[in-house]
Specification:
Elements: E1 2-11, H1 15-25, E2 29-30, E3 34-36, E4 41-47, E5 52-58, H2 66-71, E6 76-84, H3 87-96, E7 108-109, E8 115-119, E9 128-133
Parallel strand pairs: 1-5, 6-9
Antiparallel strand pairs: 1-6, 2-4, 3-4, 4-5, 7-8, 8-9
This protein binds ligand LP2KCY5N and cobalt (II) ion.
Residues 7, 9, 54, 79, 81, 130 line the site of cobalt (II) ion (CO).
Length: 134
């Protein structure tokens, strides 16, 4: 069911500093920061030949990454994102298998303008999983 690895997300306390680290120290191609208010984060993508790294900084009062950064103030790997061909079929199959789909269970539009869903980390070996419509 899952296909390509779309991105690995890293939550960071200082997006400008993290972006500079990837751009200047690691020599990567980086995008401009993009606020995603409906997701409570500001995002920078690091573009690699075979996938992307998504740097996440909290945005607003109720950011879903705030508690994560309280637990890990220096930042850390927050989620992995896999592409699926049919996100509704994937969601229904996962729910039938007992996996917890986070939020309302309805896909929302993610950073690439495509529908995304999140799966509870406790159901996937302690890793928060994002699914993105391919
Ligand atoms: C930009 C848009 C989009 C894209 O297109 O790429 C994005 O990526 S948006 C990214 C941010 N959005 C989300 O993360 C949405 C989904 N997340 C959530 O709903 C919540 O963050 C959460 C996963 C339910 C966690 O909620 P939180 O309040 O932070 O923690 P809890 O106390 O409920 O945690 C319970 C349990 O799970 C562990 N945990 C929490 N987050 C993670 C994580 N990222 N990776 C691994 N484990 C995680 C937490 O430690 C708790 O464990 P125990 O203490 O053992 O109970
Ligand atoms: Co993501």
């Amino acid at each position: 069911m899952i296909g390509r690895l779309n991105h690995v997300a890293i939550a960071v306390p200082d997006l400008a500093a993290a972006t500079a680290l990837y751009r200047d120290t690691l020599g990567a191609t980086v995008t401009d920061p993009t606020p995603q208010p409906e997701h409570g984060v500001t995002v920078v993508f690091i573009e690699l030949p075979n996938t992307k790294i998504e740097l996440l900084e909290p945005l607003g009062e109720n950011s879903p990454i705030a508690a994560f950064l309280e637990r890990s103030p220096a930042g850390g790997i927050h989620h992995v994102c896999y592409e699926v061909d049919d996100i509704m079929a994937a969601r229904d199959r996962l729910k039938d298998s007992g996996a917890r789909v986070l939020g309302s269970g309805e896909p929302r539009i993610g950073a690439h303008g495509k529908p995304v869903l999140f799966l509870h980390p406790k159901d996937f070996n302690g890793t928060l999983v994002e699914l993105e419509q391919a």
